[in-house]
Every structure is written in C-alpha cells, then in structure tokens.
Amino acid sequence: MTTSALDPRAARHCHNVINPLHSSLYFAPEYDTGLTGLGLERGSMVYFAGRAAPLGTVGAGTVTATFYNFNHELVARAIPRAWTIAAPAAVLDARLSAAGAVLTRLLGSDAIASKELAETAELALRAAEACHREARPLYAANAGLPVPEEPHLALWHAATLLREHRGDGHLAALAAAELSGLEALVTHTATGKAMTARAFQRTRGWSPDQWSAAQARLRDRGLLDADGELTAAGTELRREIETVTDRLDLAPYEHLGAAGVKRLTELATTFTQAALAAGAFPAQVFGKG
C-alpha cells in the first residue's frame, strides 16, 4: 500500500465533476442520431458499440466482462452483430462527432471557445498522463486513440480516459468485494445515489425477478434489510469499495498535484454545472424508486 500527500477525497471530487462531461453523451439525442446513422440499432446496440469500439471487434464476452453490470444476454443480442453493421473505426468517428455536438449544445459556443475550457482540457490531459494501463482494458483501449486537436474534443477525450481508468479500478474493487454485476447495481441503488431500480433493470437487461433474487442473496449476506435498504454492514462494504477505488485511481491526481487538482475541480465544476442546468441528464432515472 502506498501513501500520498493528496487527499483522496479531493481526487474523488475532481473525478466526480469531470465525469459528467463524458457520460452526458450516453443520454444525448446526438449520440443516438450519430450512431443509428451508421445503421446501428437505437438503444443497447448504440451504447455497447459506442463504448466498446476502442476495443476493436470484440465479442459479447469481452463487453460483458469490461462493462460488468449488464446482463450477458442483453449484450449478446447486440455484440458482435454491431460490427457487421459498422466497423469500430466508423463508430469512433461518429462518437467523437456526437460528443462535440453535445458539449457545444450543453455549454454554448462561447464556453467552447473560451480559454478556461482549453485550460480544463490541458489539465485533464496532464492528469491522464499518469493513468495505468495494467488491468484496465477500457482505459487502455481509449488511451490508444489520438488526442483530438480541438479543445472541447480534447476535454471529452481526457474525461473519457479519467472515467474509464477509475471505472476499471472500481470493477476490481467490486470483484474483490464478491459482488456480481447485478448485486453491485442493487447495492448502488440502495445508497440513493444512483439510477432507480427500474432504470437499471431496463437499461442493463435484468428482470424484476432477477433483481429480487439478487436482493435475497444480499439479505443472506447481511448487506440488505427486509426493506431493501443497506444494513450497517452493507453501508460499510460500499464505503470500503469506494476507498479501494480511490486508492487505485489516485495516480493521475497525484501527478497533477494539489494545486492542479484544485484548479481542475474549479473549472470542471463550472462546466458541469452548466451542462446539468442545460438538461444533460434525465432526472427521472435517478433516485431510489
């Protein structure tokens, strides 16, 4: 175990205000339009193909493994068939074009052209220089892509790198906690800080019966109570998962340094707040219902 002068909470907060600049893409009409324009099917196929395209023409097993919390049967209905419709290179081009359109719509042309946005991109890319490829397949695949020249596209690319780097580490923490993908979703929903159970079931391909069975397993482990809420043990497990994730994701923020992390957090907060105010995410999918 390593020690660090940088507060892991500061690194986590920095990630949390950068991530929406990446993840808003998946909720945007420009993303569906761009990828369905290639012939891909709206919904799961678009999502799986767009996020998995940096990996190349992989099969359903690889996507299920790297995405972790999706029902494999849902994945297998879209992958690898998606690659017979659109090659990964074409998907990547459409994805980046959509990301640029989404950020421009959410932030406005003045913000896109601002020196502050260019500074945000520069700082985020500098942080990503210290990300690790080992055991981080989604990060490593995206790290092999060229950095776009336009600052807002470079920012989206950097946010993607930082998001997938933390995400790959988070999956390692979930696996070490002996939570399946579905059980991870159930416990995450029980924190009240995630998408609703219905939204997760719809988008991840899990049936209500499968969800209920996972809840029963978690109750047997003492992690959920009879009402589906986290017990003290469940709350502690989720806390430990985040602590491990923080530790595995500290390197890019240590590389940036405390002053750089503070500045990146300030800048990214401004842009993320603007994106949220512009309706970047549908409110109805969040909560515990």
UniProtKB/TrEMBL annotation:
- InterPro entries named among the record's database cross-references: HTH_67
Give the top-rank taxon of the lineage listed in the UniProt record for this protein: Bacteria
Protein name per the record: SalK
